[in-house]
Structure formats: structure tokens, C-alpha cells
Amino acid sequence: MIYTDTRDKTVRTDFRTAVLNGMNATTGGLYIPVEFPVLDKSLLSRKTEPCFRETAFAMAKPYVSGEISDDQLMQIISDAYPFTAMVKPIDKLSYILELFHGPTCAFKDFGARFMARVMSYFNKNEDTPLHILVATSGDTGSAVGSAFSNVPGLDVTILYPEGKISPLQEKQLSTFTGNVRALRVAGTFDDCQRLVKTAFTDGDLRKKFRLSSANSINISRLLPQSFYYMYAALVVKNRSWQYNHIENPSIIAVVPSGNFGNLTSGLIAREMGAPIAGFVAATNTNHTIPDWIATGSYDPRPSVETYANAMDVGAPSNYERMQAMYSLNEIRDLFASYWLDNDGIIEAIRNCYSKTGYIIDPHGSIAWEAWYDIRHGAIEALAGGQKGDYTKPGLTPNLPSWYKKVIEKQALGIILETAHPAKFSETVSKAIGRMPSLPERLEKVMSLPDNSVSLKNDYTLFKDWLEANLR
Ligand SMILES: *Cc1c(COP(=O)(O)O)cnc(C)c1O
């Protein structure tokens, strides 16, 4: 596959370069494949349940061809995914896609684990390790740390703001051993990010060490997230007649979004033939994208803290990819958008629990409520000419092309549940008066020793530490 860039479509590069560079330093753009090949008919129209790994292999193959052999790719996929995505019916017109069955209990495991193995593969003929530096405010760091743990040829240094993340998140970050280390910085997330950025631009340091980043703009984190969209859409399409008595459903993916990497991966799956008719972009108070869809003007802003904190992004970096892939009118045909504030999140968790018995996390809850509102009058009201107000929580005034299917009850929602509710037990128990039970793998983390190293918010000290500790 050839890759180009969101800012300069004349750029041509290979997968290895796109992965190891993360972004194009010359243009400041993000890498995208020049095309999205449609999967073979034999997979798309098969009448039996798909297999997750087989789907993943078929989806990944065109993007790595000529650079990673089939055998190696199969190895990467089976190492990355000892777990799977799970599709569960929750009511007559909705499915939950549980994406939290990986080691850190959040969907970021899908992207980070694939990326780690691909980077290791591309580094295997080098004599020196590749040093990954990550600044994190929570979930990304644990997914990346866990994904790279014991992966040969790579090591990871995580910086996180001491005392500014949840105790469980801090445990997840501070208990790594071996090739993954955590520095707890006396400062904010922005300070951590500044330390990392300064290191990347420090010529002296870069002469001594090969440095790379692992952030969410990397194409090797985005592509693997498309695997579970394809998988889930095929599962739901296969089940729709027997379970939902709908012959030919319009399948809508409802995606809790922050940086919009997850949703962009859904767009890629759709391009590759996934039977997905449209999307719902569901956000918290950081509703930059719903506003853009409603008004046509893109207005990035500082982020606001919410209960769905992994979506606290005011300037979503994948806006640039969505915009490179589609016109605003195409986006408006494909997307409904929806947002909730903190009160709405609590109400949504409660609603989901009382109507279905399912305990949902604060991020997924926005998607659940969006899909509930959409099929209980909100879209019909818009279709009937109601104006709607994009500055208020709820469905943003925009009618996607699939709206009639919702009114006719011929649409099935796939609600992406991006984290295990136990990771946000305080908010969940505030809503429903009970704690979700902690999965064993999170419970285990709570009893591991803390190996983090304390660091002052000072670049010289950070650099000294790197020079003394990196190999
Ligand atoms: C990162 C994250 C999101 C947001 O995903 P984006 O790809 O940034 O839109 C949603 N939910 C959870 C639990 C996350 O960790």
C-alpha cells in the first residue's frame, strides 16, 4: 500500500515510514492510505458468524502488503488479539459492542497492541532499541505500556501528572516492569507533554537515542480499530433476521468520541465494504465536531473536564483525516451527532441500567442515550421540521440520509462500549447506586508494587534521567 498525507496529496510513502514517523514532520499532516480496498465478497456475504482474527487479517493485509508477509501478519494478529470484541443484543433494535476485553479494559488495547507489534517488526534488523516516549492523562498510557510490555526491541517511558489521574489509572501506569517505565511528574498533563516534545526536538538527545512516539494519530493504531467495526457489522447483519425480524437492516454505528480516531476507523471499515449505513458521533461537552456538522464551521477550543474524561478533547486531531476523506455534505449524509453534559451522562447511565439492566460506563452511556433518543422521537422531530439547537445537549440539528430507516424501525444500532464500567466506578455508582464489579485483571493490578519514579517538572532533570537510564 502507498500512503499519502492529509495536507499534501502528492506525498508518497510506505507503511514502515508512516508507522515509524507517526506524522509527516515536513507538512505537519497525518498519513492516510491512498485507497481503501473493498474486502472480498466471499467474506462480506458469508452467511456464518465471522471470526474476529480472520476478519482482522483480511482487513490488514492490503495495508501491509509488500512489507509484511502473510505469515508474519498472522503472527502479529494472533499475538495482539488473545481476546476479542463481543457483540451483545441489548434490546430489540440495539447491540452493544464490548471493546473492553483486552488487558487494560478499554478499546485502546486494539490499536496499541497492533501498533506495538508492527513497530517491533520494523525494528527487528536494528542494533539499538527504539525508545517510545508517551505523555498521558490516563487511558492511553496504560494501553500503550501494556501493549509494548515485553515486546522485543522497544522500550517505553511514560510520563503522567502525579495525583491528577484516578487511583486505578495511576496503579495501571506505575506497576509496569521490564521494558516499560513510568515517571510521575510534579505538574500537569501539559507539562508532561511539553517535556516529551522538548525531548523529540533535542538534537543532542536524538543523536544518542532513536526516539519515537505512540500517540493516537499513528496510522498503525487507526487501521486495527477498523477490524471490530467490520466484524460487528457482519455479526449483526447475520443475526438481524433471526433476532430482530428485519430483513435488510440499516446498521448504524454509535461512537463515543473524543479525538475521533475510533470513528475514523469506522469510516475506513465502511469504505472497505462493512455493511454500515451511517454513524452517530456522540460526544460530551467537548462538542466541537457536532457543532461543525450543525453549522459548517470548524471551531477548535480548549478542552473541558467531564465524567467521560477520555473524550475531553476540544481540538480533535482526526478532524483532519475525516475532512481529507469526505466533503461536509457527505459527512452530513453519513452522520447524526449528539452530545451530553455531566448531568446528562449520569442520567444516561441510569436510563440504560433501568431499561436494560446493562451497566454501562460514562463514555458508552452517551452513545446509548443518543441511540435511545434518536429512535424515540428525536430524529422524527427533526424530520418534521423542528429547528433544534446545537448549543443544547441532545441530537444536533442535522438529518442524515438514513433517518427514514430509523422512523420505519428498520435500523439497528451498534453502540460501542469503549471501556469497562469498573474503570469509572465512582461515576457509575453515583448514577445507579451500586459499584460495577472489578474484572480480575484490574483487581490484580491493585495489589502490584508501585515502580514509578518521581520527577520534577524540569527538562534538564528529565534529560539527565533519560541519559542515565536508556540503553
Ligand atoms: C480514548 C477513548 C475514547 C475516545 O476515542 P477517540 O478515538 O479519541 O475518539 C472514548 N472512550 C474511551 C473509554 C477512551 O479511552
Give me a quick take on this structure.
With 471 residues, this protein is α/β, with parallel strands linked by helices. The chain is 45% helix and 15% strand. It has 20 helices and 14 strands.
Explain what this protein looks like in three dimensions.
- By secondary structure, the chain is an alpha/beta fold.
- The chain is built from 20 helices and 14 strands.
- The protein has helices spanning 15-21, 41-44, 52-64, 70-80, 108-122, 139-148, 167-174, 189-200, 203-208, 219-244, 261-271, 288-295, 319-325, 328-334, 342-356, 362-383, 403-407, 425-432, 440-446, 459-469; strands spanning 3-5, 31-33, 86-91, 94-98, 130-135, 154-161, 180-186, 210-212, 250-256, 278-283, 335-339, 394-395, 411-417, 453-456.
- Strands 3-4-13-9-10-11-12 form a seven-stranded mixed sheet, with helices on both faces. The protein has a five-stranded parallel sheet with strand order 8-5-6-7-14. It has a two-stranded antiparallel sheet with strand order 1-2.
- Helix 7 (167-174) links the parallel strand 6 and strand 7.
- Helix 5 packs across helix 10 (219-244).
- The longest helix has 26 residues, at 219-244.
- The chain is globular and about 65 Å long.
- The model has no long low-confidence stretch (mean pLDDT 94).
- The site of pyridoxal-5'-phosphate has 15 residues, from helix 11.
- The site of pyridoxal-5'-phosphate (PLP) has 15 residues, from helix 11.
